[in-house]
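Researcher: Going back to the complex we discussed earlier. I've cleaned up the inputs and rechecked each line, so this should be the final set. Can you rerun the prediction on the complete assembly and write out the structure?
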Amino acid sequence: MFRKIVFIFLSLIYSVEKSYSQDYFPENAGVKTSNQPYNVFINATIIVSPDKKIEKGILIERDGLVVEVGKNIEIPKNSILHDKTGQYIYPSFIDLYSNFGIKKAKRAITRGRSSQYNPNREGFYWNDHILSDYNSINDYSYDPVKSKKLREVGFGIVNAHRENGIHRGTGSLIALSDRHTDNYRIIKSNSTEFYSFKKSINSAQSYPTSVMGAMALLRQFFLDIEWYEQKSSNSKDISIEAAIQNKNLPKIFESGGRLNLMRALKIGKETNQKFTVVGSGLEYLDHKRIKSYGNTIVVPINFPKPYDVSDPELNEKLSLNHLKEWNQAPSNLSVLEENDIDFAITSKGLENISDFIQNIKKAVAYGLSEKRALMSLTKIPAKVLKMNQKIGELKKGFYANFLVTSGPIFKKESVIYENWIIGKQHVLAPNDVVLNLDISDEDLLQYLEKAENAGYSVEELKNVAKFYGLSSEEIKILGKRLTNAKKELELKDEALKKIEPKKKFPVLPITYPNTAYGFKEKPKYSNIVFKNVTAWTNEEEGILKNIDVLITNGKIKKIGQNLETPKNHIELDCTGKHLTAGIIDEHSHIAASSINEAGQNSSAEVSIEDVIDPDDISIFRSLAGGVTTAQILHGSANPIGGRSAIIKLRWGESDEKMIFKNSDKFIKFALGENVKQSNWGSNSRFPQTRMGVEQVFVDYFNRALEYGKKWENYNSLSKKAKGTIEKPRKDIELDVILEILKGDRFITCHSYVQSEINMLMKVAEKFGVRINTFTHILEGYKLADKMFRHGVGGSTFSDWWAYKYEVIDAIPYNGPIMTEAGVTVAYNSDSSEVIRRLNQEAAKAVKYGGLSEEEAWKYVTLNPAKLLHIDDRVGSLKEGKDADLVIWSDNPLSIYASAEKTFIDGKIYYDSSKIESIIVDIKLEKNKIINQIKSSIGKGQKVQPIVSNTNKEFFCETIDK
Amino acid sequence: MKKIFLLFFISQLLVTGQQTPGSGQYESILIENAIIHIGDGTVIKMGYVGFQDGKIKYVGGTKPENKYDKSINTNGAHLYPGLIALNSTLGLAEIDAVRATRDYDEIGPFLPHISSSIAYNAESKVVESMRMNGVLIAQTTPRGGIISGKSSIMQLDAWNWEDALIFKNVGIHLNWPTPYTYKRSSNGERTIEKNKNYIKKVKEIKDFFKSSKSYLPNPKPINLEYEAMRNMFNGNEIIFLHANSSKQIQDGILFLSSLKIKKIVLVGGIYSYKQKDLLIKNKIPIVLKHPHNLPSFVDEDPKIRFRNAKKLVDAGLLVSIDVSGSMERMNSRNLPFYAGSFSAYGVDKENALRMITLNAAKILGISGNYGSIKVDKSATFFISKGDALDMRSNILEYAFIDGRKVSLESHQTKLWKRYLQKGRNNKNKR
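Model: Rerun complete. Updated structure for the full complex:
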């Protein structure tokens, strides 16, 4: 209490100080003196930099810079001496990611229900969300209130910018000094560029509507910069020019989430941009991959607040992954340190900045070294800013930005006394012994009298006054405020107690994924002989009864009678069970963070591979239904959709490792009501009719051909000749369309009625393209002969109809009729619910249309494999193929059958016999963490509402929220 | 020869024509050699069902002595009572995305005076597609609001809604408010909190019930809404309580039973197993949400909805299946497979069948006439080549409603036959 009182005294002293102005400015308020005294700090433990400590050292400051630091240094005569015996001096902190003092962007007013497809601005890039020309200094004004809060937790400099846009333009480096003007505070007006995946709010331009769209936009923008630099035409683009000018600035990417962090790293690698990426605080889950990129990560330390666990019924809905994150997140920084990942720490996301030091201390309690903590707040951000010769350390010639603390800064009980910024003292807590001040006894007594009336003991106050030598005027003013001050401090003390976590809990192990049903250890090869099983081979042999199937190291090794069990193989008696190839879903929208890029009528530039969400519970639920592979398709918001991802449902692996290796690549096209936007009110985008849809394809195919020719011409030139002409602009979207025309990429087209299906085949034929698959294809039965002649497959629903007008003639006999015509037919789900029981959907082909069971089974295994061009590796039981298998309790087409075990690459990803005990484990683990939360919640501490991952259901029409 | 047969086939098709309801039963019929699934959990392994004037006259394992005008030898096919779809909106909308065709949700919070029966579209192409899977009776139910209105029981082969009616206004549908609300947090996650308006909403219900109850003894001038509650209060109509969470179920049942309401049926009941004791004590049947639904939360058993029925059936509760949900009308034809799925996860086959036959009839109060194969009950049943709960073998050969042979054709089968023929003709040409 004693020390804090004085803190208030001193902050008042500064308010009467003359402002510190620049030396070439005229001075009309008094005389212009320039000979400032030195500030000399003695007897302190000086942390010059995280790896250099001087005991009982001397630090000399003048004009805002470190003049000298060391042990045996001569002290200049005109010095103010600060005796810091027992205290520590640290370089003050730097926040790489801040919006300090920058006015927020204004939200654009949107008119009507239709989306806006064009930009607001002219003379700039075609997309309003690229604001590379923006400099936040234009919207900057110093915010003393926030500055004080930041200083109190140790910050000296922040890298401020406007949080708006995908390219956010540049930020500015601001020193948090109340005692300077902006002429000094602005250390750099153009410090770094900022990027994100979020659109600018001051334009309603629709594109991009998704993260994958934002990724594509950035890729294209970087290509356009390259092109612009060498182009000869006269057209101007202010955004690109600004980006060229700022090329060498450091680049900071706010990723906005755990999966997006990896996406930002990916984009950076592809475009050769060295992004410093702002993360989510959950980096411990991906440290291996983060490390492999080698970027510096800016890590927030807004650890999850405890959840409101007061209602038991609600607690059931609280997801295990959130509970685990609450338990694990404090260990994030120590995990990053252990794995030697470069990271800086930011105050971003903290509701109360005052929690910052508390949380760093918490991270230290969870294993972060104090040295690394300090580095991540000083040297590393300085390096990112390319300012490591000026800030982040206390070497000679560096900014005199430093903290004076009561002890090692991250010790639990340590207090920051002072925050010196550009050589000016800002006192946070009292400690200073200033030796050259004098005070008369009379004043002191007067002060003491008043203070005593306010309820302080005489002894306490005498000491204070003696220590801090106050002027009589100061004492008079302060006397009045003492009572209030005392109350305020008591409240603050209480608050501090509440913030501080009472306990450190053992960190729970990570699972793969780190959610319910995650694996403790990733599955390994199961080398098995399935004995006496009924095997649905999907090959000439048909359904083999009482057969043995041997799998070794992920492959089907042998199928035969009475197989011997090789060494290191397990024998599994499968009497009465059925063994099949894993189910393949040709049309799914699970496991993705976004599905539609709806901002334009073509979005060939986006790719679902960019946005795979490997933690989606739908993956596990699908495994429980015997699914092993799925094509994750872009939605049907536009005639030319995005590229799709074919994944194996390797639950627990990263997005990258889920991608089906070396497969052919596909793209989604779409026809009908969705692309016409018939059912959602918007009516300004071309096309609005099926007539227009045709023209979109014709247009894009033509343009891609033209584009291809341009490049062909260019590439055929000699090196010398190339130098004389303008290099064509690289266009990702047209590159993709060109791939289609060259036969390097295959079309899966969302389709319903026969007219449009026929149309697309004709358009494709004109351009020498074969449509690979019509998906949905509900009227395929009406022109199955034409489909056969074109050579296209049909991936349809078993029996959906009546949900919109264009499905009015949908029939459940569609599949069998197409089959009879020779078309390769698959049944797909397009639903995270149906995908779990595609075996039953296949059975409907037996009911409707009388297909044999063997053929019906191929509808969800071999046929979709054929449509995806992966039937050489999956889709049937054949020696040499991937061991993607399912053991069924019964005939897999039977309603009474369930998947008992699901294998991918010979590894068990789902085992029904274990589910019951897993569910018990989930409950126990949740209870354990809930009890931890209960015991951690101090009186009056803020809690957050229950967060539940409910079902994320994507259909063709789903747009990112 | 083949061609001639096909021509005959097609002309037959045109004569019987889809959408034309079967005419009355003018001759007595004996079904021979069928596996008879009675609907009450029992089976006659090889037996006979005789019916006349729309009523079942004989059920047994041996051939009856009485003469029948006509006999149908099924050669070991399966005979089932007509399946009953509860809490359906069949006939109340045709195409989901076309607003003009939607007639199931009136505006307003308390609409007990609304009756679904008169909006029922007997010509619906969705309705006719039920029959080919054995769904012959449906409860058509209005949606929305707090009290959505009254449902009626329809047979699915009729010229018009009056013709279709088995029972008009069987009960009132009360949607219990949700005690929890979902919000989206700043970082896009869904958060759940207690619904601050829950108590207020519940009070609105209580007030409405109280007001209508006090209105009833002196109904002048007439108040349509309150008046429509009369039959429910005097026990002639059922109250269908739509509730899923444990708290909703508990609060709803405690409230309704405190008013001494006799006929309470729980609809949805996803978490009703948590209130088993309360349900048993109050003898409340459950129309359980069908299993083709995802778990509500990621941590839940991936198969939780499939396992739901067993928990309730084992507790001795009267359980049927609620067909409502995503694409509910067209998917109502999957009702037998919903039952089959419940069977795959623990309910034995005949009990699973019972859920959608006798249990459903009991819940609706029509078990005196429908729901099982018993003498003197309506001859409403179908014959399937195989196990009707399994999609592979749910292949209907005959269906009868009140003894009338009904068409198994639909818009879908018509198109099927047309285009199958088109394809085959093309092939012959080649």
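Model: Worth noting: Residues 1-21, 432-440, 480-485 of chain A have pLDDT under 50 and may be disordered.
Researcher: Good, that matches what I expected from the previous run.
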